[in-house]
TrEMBL record:
Residues 67-77 have a biased composition (Basic and acidic residues). Residues 82-92 have a biased composition (Pro residues). Residues 184-451 form the Transposase IS66 central domain. PANTHER family: BLL1576 PROTEIN. This is IS66 family transposase. Residues 117-161 form the Transposase IS66 zinc-finger binding domain. InterPro entries: Transposase-related, Transposase_IS66_central, Znf_dom_IS66. Residues 63-104 are annotated as: Disordered. Pfam families: DDE_Tnp_IS66, zf-IS66.
Length: 501
């Protein structure tokens, strides 16, 4: 069975049940063999119990990761949070009330009485219109999307002298003789890379709405659009490489072939107002160099060894993510609740310090002062814990401490640089679109498909980060490209007086 491409829920459910049963058998066998091995080695009985207990907890933890719900929220976080101040009781309310819709256009729909109903029930005289008096109510309605076949008639003009003929200009086209409009191409791209609808699904939806079209035609539109916008994507990548701090991460992206899908990776670079993607055929140092080659700033990342290796040759500085450390100790908390709680509480204290500051860059000066005065003390306490705590070798707690110590210099770099955030969560959030898209259309079918996907995900996620409508931005960029102008980047459009809405 190919789990990468199988989409039948019942088949996947049966496969998961089989894997779970097999996993339980193997787990029991591992525990039995470990017990026999330690007994043969003549280990201390108490140490033997600790090792077996730790192994059982590790297996239980892995089972939860595979078959349970994932969450980083801890019950102790809610229990230890300070109680909220009492609020005065509110009067009982029926229902949830109407939700405000400030972005919807308002369309007034008048309602009048029929002529036969405009008769007074008391005297029989005709009723007069009461000027300015209405009973009003709101109703959210839907206007169905529709496709039209526009017949453009470009008027011709001539001079009586016979020496000049002029024709009115037509609409902008993606290419000479294009049958589909630029708005159609933008609609298809937005549906696929913003709303994650595969092209075949779009074909079925369009057919229900009256348009008969093939998926190849839709691909042709977005491929030509991507070709037009390619200089803007490259400019966005270069803009990111000029930033002082970048969040970097990578997530797998299948490239579907004739047999097994290959494991490509979507590499992301995230700054405060932009996201840039490249989809490359691996996650080695060579691919990382294609993404970060020439960068000299600060890279916020996880502990993946490729970044450390590349930093030595490229000359950028590494900063590491406290959220990843926190996750390690959450895993260890199952087996070592008291010890893990010490570190988790101190990490929560680091975030509490950050919450006191204004957002960057206005709060940078205050942030640096608070980090030196308060965060530094908390970091020293975490370090002391790591140096003085006795742990069972190769246990989950030992692994969490070793992970933290191994990236300590990157974890503490935020103390002296207010631009560096505590974690890389903003980069992981920017990857949600890629991950959802991967699940919906299973990656790309060609190398060119990966290039097109990287371009549109970069523009769409950047537009979302800047608070502008991705579809409106794509139109602004497309029109600029067709006119031979420089393609504005999303943060530039957001900063302009008109913006994109």
């Amino acid at each position: 069975m190919n789990f990468e491409t199988e989409n039948d829920p019942e088949i996947l459910r049966q496969a998961a049940l089989l894997l779970e049963r097999e996993n339980q058998k193997l787990a029991k066998k591992i525990i039995e063999l470990t017990r026999e091995l330690l007994t043969l080695k003549g280990g201390d009985p108490e140490q033997l119990k600790l090792r077996i207990a730790e192994l059982e907890r590790q297996i239980a933890s892995k089972n939860r990761m595979l078959f349970g719900e994932k969450s980083e929220r801890r019950a102790s976080d809610e229990e230890s949070a300070p109680p909220a101040p009492p609020t005065p009781p509110k009067p009982p309310q029926k229902g949830h009330g109407p939700k405000a819709q400030p972005s919807l256009p308002i369309e007034e729909v008048p309602h009048v009485l029929d002529e036969a109903d405009r008769v007074c029930s008391a005297c029989g005289e005709m009723l007069d219109v009461w000027e300015g008096q209405f009973e009003q109510s709101e109703e959210v309605d839907v206007v169905p999307r529709r496709f039209v076949l526009k017949l453009h008639k470009r008027q011709k003009y001539r001079c009586r002298c016979g020496g000049c003929v002029e024709t009115a200009p037509g609409p902008l086209k993606l290419f000479e003789g294009a049958r589909y409009s630029i708005d159609f191409a933008i609609e298809v791209a937005s549906e696929k890379y913003h709303d994650h609808a595969p092209l075949e699904r779009q074909v079925r939806k369009m057919r229900r709405e009256g348009l008969v079209v093939e998926s190849q035609t839709l691909w042709d539109q977005i491929e030509r659009l991507a070709r037009l916008l390619a200089p803007g994507h490259e400019a966005l990548v270069q803009y990111q490489l000029a930033q002082g701090v970048l969040g970097v991460d990578e997530t797998r992206w299948p490239l579907l072939g004739k047999s097994e899908p290959s494991r490509w990776y979507a590499w992301s670079m995230v700054s405060t107002n932009a996201v840039a993607y490249r989809i490359l055929d691996g996650r080695s140092t060579e691919e990382a160099r294609k993404m970060l080659g020439g960068y000299k700033g600060v890279v916020m990342c996880d502990a993946y060894a490729v970044y450390k290796s590349l930093a030595k040759t490229e000359g950028f500085t590494l900063a590491h993510c406290w959220a990843h450390v926190r996750r390690e100790f959450i895993e260890a908390e199952v087996s070592f609740p008291a010890e893990a709680k010490v570190v988790l509480d101190l990490i929560r204290g680091l975030y509490a310090v950050e919450a006191k500051c204004k957002p960057a860059p206005d709060g940078d000066e205050e942030r640096l002062a608070l980090r030196q005065a308060e965060s530094k003390v908390l970091v020293e306490r975490i370090r002391a814990f790591a140096e003085t705590t006795n742990v069972v070798p190769k246990s989950r707690l030992d692994g969490a401490i070793q992970y933290m110590v191994g990236i300590w210099s990157g974890l503490t770099r935020f103390l002296s640089d207010p631009r560096i955030t505590l974690d890389n969560n903003h980069t992981e959030r920017a990857e949600r679109g890629v991950v959802v898209g991967r699940k919906n259309h299973y990656g790309s079918r060609s190398r060119r498909g990966t290039e097109v996907a990287a371009l549109f995900y970069s523009f769409i996620e950047s537009a979302k980060l800047c608070g502008i409508d991705p579809k409106a931005y794509l139109r602004t960029a497309t029109v600029a490209a067709l006119r031979g102008e420089r393609i504005p980047l999303p943060h530039e459009v957001a900063a302009s007086p008109s913006g994109a809405s």
